[in-house]
Specification:
The chain is an alpha+beta fold. The protein is built from seven helices and nine strands, in the order H-H-E-E-E-H-E-H-H-H-E-E-E-E-E-H. A four-stranded mixed beta sheet has the order 1-4-6-5, with helices on both faces.
Length: about 190
């Protein structure tokens, strides 16, 4: 009993350390750093700025990104930030919601993640909101998963992985090799 409690305590301490590190980084400095292996920008969650309408396909792109972070080293997803670091905000996204506020946005984000990745993955996804240049952005901090996380679409499971500054799907052979190479995750 004590051994299991001790392992759980060490894992929770590691999680707290990871989250403190992520939150301590200044937002403008984080954005100025640009996209990379552990940082991704998305201009919106569901509002297609080009078509000027809701596009639920954008939500699935977000979920694939979350899966990629979960299966690699974790990372931060900034929603409401253009690829070049320009602040776009999530106000247009929030206006499309039944509850047009941050709580409604987070609820939809977590429901979409649960539907695509499974409820167990949601415990590793943390959503915060920040005001920058008079606009609201969502900062989604994703922890590394101890187990593989699969993105499920149309009943088909896909293994997504963060590689450099993009998220890509691995085929079965690549996923098996990656998971074998990754080996057991140590706490």
């Amino acid at each position: 009993g004590f051994g299991a409690y001790h392992v759980r305590l060490i894992r929770e301490r590691s999680t707290v350390h990871f989250l403190k590190h992520e939150l301590n980084e200044e937002l403008p400095l984080l954005i100025a750093r640009g996209e990379g292996e552990q940082l991704e920008f998305k201009s919106s969650f569901r509002w297609d700025r080009r078509q000027d309408r809701v596009n639920r396909g954008l939500q699935q792109v977000i979920v694939k990104t979350l899966a990629g972070f979960l299966n690699h080293e974790g990372g931060t997803l900034m929603i409401g930030v253009e690829d070049d670091g320009t602040i776009a905000g999530i106000e247009a996204d929030m206006q499309t919601l039944k509850h047009a506020n941050q709580d409604g946005f987070e609820r939809l984000l977590m429901d979409t993640a649960r539907d695509g990745l499974g409820g167990h993955a949601c415990a590793l996804i943390h959503c915060q909101f920040h005001e920058l240049d008079g606009l609201t952005i969502s900062r989604v901090i994703v922890e590394k998963s101890l187990e593989p996380i699969y993105y499920v679409e149309g009943g088909v499971a896909h293994f997504m992985l963060r590689a450099g500054n993009s998220t890509r799907e691995l085929d079965v052979r690549e996923a098996q090799a990656y998971l074998q190479h990754r080996g057991p995750v140590r706490v």
